[in-house]
Design brief:
The radius of gyration is 17 Å and the shape is globular. The longest helix is centred in the first third of the chain and has 14 residues. It is built from 10 helices and 5 strands; from the N terminus they run H-H-H-H-E-H-H-E-H-H-E-H-E-E-H. A 3-stranded parallel sheet has the order 3-4-5. The chain has a two-stranded parallel sheet with strand order 1-2. Helix 3 runs parallel beside helix 5. The protein is 49% helix and 8% strand. The protein is mainly alpha-helical and 184 residues long.
Length: 184
């Protein structure tokens, strides 16, 4: 399977959906495959992951103007902590991480986003989701939350789906968002 096909088939899915998709594609996974996968993923994450350029600055800007923010993920809390801690972002998010593993609802079901919104005392029309996967985009649509799409491979072509809300960098997303709300 090519890297592109792998991303298309699995990116953003819950582990249960990954297992189901792999089985549909003909994989014969051992009963302990989930445990093996998590062990490998966590070991790899401990080796280090690159921060998406512009994310620390974006988070700092949100904090400066007092805009609440969170992470809503099909991944586990442990995965979020491993990734965010490496870039000194864990303290900014630790109280506002919403995992499908804990909530028991996975994207694209809108329940996970709605749970996060309720916990943060926000309504869908008061929020903006930044997503990087088709599963996440569908979840935002299902929850009626506006979605800005982080797609570093996007060249801005007008024929792309969601072209007006698709951005190739976090700096572009930050500029777009703050052009509407300002730095008050």
């Amino acid at each position: 399977m090519s890297f592109e096909t792998c991303l298309t088939s699995f990116m953003g899915k819950s582990i249960e959906d990954v297992i189901d998709t792999a089985a549909q594609l003909g994989a014969d996974l051992p009963s302990n495959w989930k445990a093996i996968l998590y062990e490998r993923v966590f070991e790899r994450l401990k080796q280090g992951v690159e921060v998406i350029p512009g994310v620390p600055e974006f988070v700092a800007r949100l904090k400066t103007v007092g805009i609440p923010f969170c992470v809503v993920s099909n991944g586990s809390e442990k995965k979020m902590q491993l990734m965010l801690s490496q870039h000194d972002l864990w303290d900014d998010f630790k109280d506002n991480c919403f995992s499908a593993h804990t909530v028991g609802i996975a994207k694209p079901d809108p329940g996970l986003l709605r749970y996060a919104l309720d916990t943060m005392n926000a309504r869908a029309n008061q929020a903006v989701i930044i997503e990087d996967s088709e599963i996440g985009i569908k979840s935002a649509e299902n929850a009626d939350v506006p979605c800005l799409i982080y797609d570093p491979s996007f060249g801005g072509g007008s024929s792309a789906v969601h072209a007006k809300s698709r951005f190739s960098s976090m700096d572009e997303i930050s500029s777009h968002l703050f052009s509407f709300i300002g730095d008050t």
